[in-house]
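Hi there, hope your week has been kind to you so far. Do you reckon you could talk me through the fold, stretch by stretch? I've dropped the whole record in just underneath, so have a look:
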Amino acid sequence: MKKILGMGNALVDIMIPLDDDQILDRLELPKGSMQLVDKERSRQILSLLKDYKRTQSAGGSAANTIHGLATLGGITGYIGAIGEDELGGFFVRELINAGVEPHLIHSKEETGRAITLVTPDSERTFATYLGAAGTLSADSITTTLHPSLFTDHQNDYFHMEGFLVQDHNLVETTLKLVKECGLTVSIDLASYNVVAANREFLHSVIEKYVDIVFANEEEAKAFTGKEPVEALKELASQCEIVIVKIGSKGSLIMQGKEIVTIGAIPVHPIDTTGAGDLYASGFLYGHSLGMPIRRCGEIGAILAGNVIEVMGSKMTAAQWDNIRELVGSI
């Protein structure tokens, strides 16, 4: 089996279900967006929501994808930066327990956290304090990590989350390095507002270094200004494979001139956190085994459909047993 290495913002997700949308207006957080906040603002939001129920799990987009791949049985590793604190220890334990090999850089900053506010329609709004995750840099990639991580066939795929693109030097340096080492590169565009703010840079790095792009319809529109099918075609002119996820309608996949439509599985949605990340887990798992894109998309749909039936991005052991049985049948 091919090995898959991920890199992203190492965050602990703090999930808080809301009764309605009004609290988002009071907090001045645009619904469905990912907003970066500082330490004080993060603490203020948590304080204002102290009476709401909450759960926590190791998160960050790429970490969720890698965790899902490992739980499917994939051979995986993860690059990120954490603090020397309780949340950092929690993050490492969750990776190791899932079978992920950690390649973590330790920082004096607090471990990052993503406050994830879930409204009754299952939409997520993020207030993210990067903390230690924000100390991941081009220099730490080239001088702190062992060079053999990218060479000597230690890894075959490299998956990056789009939230990192706000650090252009980190992204370009890393993608250039892994591409020169012959890895298959995938990127998840992550959030429509991040895409909009970094559109020109994303066009450049995708054309140069990226083989597989994952986007939802809002991200695809922010990138191209077009609706899903036309956005799919434009993105496919820049890389080998493009996946545009269209919510309850499923997903569109394009490779070369072939376009495949994948339906969503029937579910009772509770929270969409992790749906896109787990779709990428399923797709990359299938692709790493040499499956055609339709089969890869079907596995992605199984994982995405299951994760939205739970609060947060982590599923139960029973769910995973069922998922592995379904994937095995594919």
In short: The two ends are 17 Å apart (CA to CA). The chain has one domain: 3-8+60-107+135-329. Residues 3-8+60-107+135-329 form a domain with the UDP-N-acetylmuramoyl-L-alanine:D-glutamate ligase fold (CATH 3.40.1190.20).
